[in-house]
Amino acid sequence: MTLEEVVNQKPSERAQCTGKALEEVLVSSKANDCLTIGVYESAKVMNVDPDSVSFCVLAMDEEFECDIALQIHFTLIQAFCFDNDISIVSVNDMQLLSEIFGVISKHLGEDGQNPAEDSWEDPALEKLHLFCEESRSYNEWVPEITLPER
């Protein structure tokens, strides 16, 4: 999907497309052992090897809006992503996100292996990068993605 195709989509189609693409990327990255979960764990990875980070998802929830320390960490992660040209989005449905991670664990099974080869070649990650690029052109630096209902 090109940037022009993303731009020409209706907002509801674009939101659905990016939500599905994010879910695909999360499943694929977990299957390939390329997923880091948690604010502190992610900050460690970014500090040690920033070139290994290709995409960042900030999981926000209303109950955490008053947590000043967490907001400071989010701000620092956002700044790091901007400085290192890492696409970043936010998701505001922690329940749905945890359900996806539950499905990921069940999908992987006991051995943690996924039969999908070269899943990072999947166009879902490219769709998310294009979505972020388009959002930045509208000065929306951390666009919010709505995950598809389960």
From TrEMBL:
Segments traversing the membrane: none
Residues annotated as domain Ribosomal protein eL8/eL30/eS12/Gadd45: 21-102
Cellular component terms (Gene Ontology): cytoplasm; nucleus
Pfam families tied to this protein: Ribosomal_L7Ae
One GO BP: regulation of cell cycle
Superkingdom of the source species: Eukaryota
Gene3D superfamilies: 3.30.1330.30
InterPro entries to which the protein is assigned, alphabetical: GADD45, Ribosomal_eL30-like_sf, Ribosomal_eL8/eL30/eS12/Gad45
Family of the protein in this entry: Belongs to the GADD45 family.
Protein name: Growth arrest and DNA-damage-inducible, gamma b, tandem duplicate 1
Gene source species: Cyprinus carpio (Common carp)
